[in-house]
What we know:
- There is one protein chain.
- By secondary structure, the chain is an alpha+beta fold.
- It contains 8 helices and 16 strands.
- The protein is globular, with a radius of gyration of 19 Å.
- It binds (3R)-3-hydroxy-3-methyl-5-(phosphonooxy)pentanoic acid (PMV).
- (3R)-3-hydroxy-3-methyl-5-(phosphonooxy)pentanoic acid (PMV) binds next to helix 4.
Amino acid sequence: xxxxxxxxxxxxxxxxxxxxxxxxxxxxxxxxxxxxxxxxxxxxxxxxxxxxxxxxxxxxxxxxxxxxxxxxxxxxxxxxxxxxxxxxxxxxxxxxxxxxxxxxxxxxxxxxxxxxxxxxxxxxxxxxxxxxxxxxxxxxxxxxxxxxxxxxxxxxxxxxxxxxxxxxxxxxxxxxxxxxxxxxxxxxxxxxxxxxxxxxxxxxxxxxxxxxxxxxxxxxxxxxxxxxxxxxxxxxxxxxxxxxxxxxxxxxxxxxxxxxxxxxxxxxxxxxxxxxxxxxxxxxxxxxxxxxxxxxxxxxxxxxxxxxxxxxxxxxxxxxx
Length: 321
Ligand code: PMV
């Protein structure tokens, strides 16, 4: 058992995963499709130590506690079971994006943890094996294992296009730095309580087909309406769950309306929103500067981060400790 470090990017889903078919195996109720975000990076170092009594975890320099720590320890337990070891680990994880900005995605966290921990434990998993294991830590993490644009269907996530296929951009409008009240981890369980849940699941195949087609032909106008429709349908499910989840802030709605007005004026951009209030605006590289400037001028937008398509999880030699 040794030490290893991995780098991963969070991904933004263009067709969302919301609700599970199997809670224990973390299987999704519907297929989802995402793009890794090159501009946002998580680095994680794991070292197993025979003399340590319990797992020690720091995230952005602070000791992890509560549910965050429990989820990391549970994931390390999966790796220990595979390696046939009971050594405890020291884990340090760092995000190069503001942790308080509501972008600290569990997707990059569990993708990086999976590669670093398996390598530190002396295991050598292939991409499918890493992706399946990452999925058990956090569903969307399986999509951060392969590079570029990734499709997740039930057990496996695989690449549908490499990062260089198309220079799409995601301009992320950050409207709050506060952590969300209900994590997506807990939110999935509420999805079936919405009367709109089944309706969204029935509509996903058509949206997924439109997004795949637009991607294949590098045609944003062919996929944008489906991306927006799916995000709005997911939030409709969230809002109508019992208890209701309302992730949007006034500034979220201001950005959604602004994006549609810009489009009417000829600036091609489409929005999607995860389980939080920040808005992701998809556009072509040539329009990214203009979209970024306009987003910054929307009242309530605190910061804008622009990202192109990113690589998959990989190991590096520079350790965090
Ligand atoms: O992987 P989780 O359990 O954090 O769920 C992710 C849920 C969404 O971000 C809202 C949608 C998605 O597909 O990424």
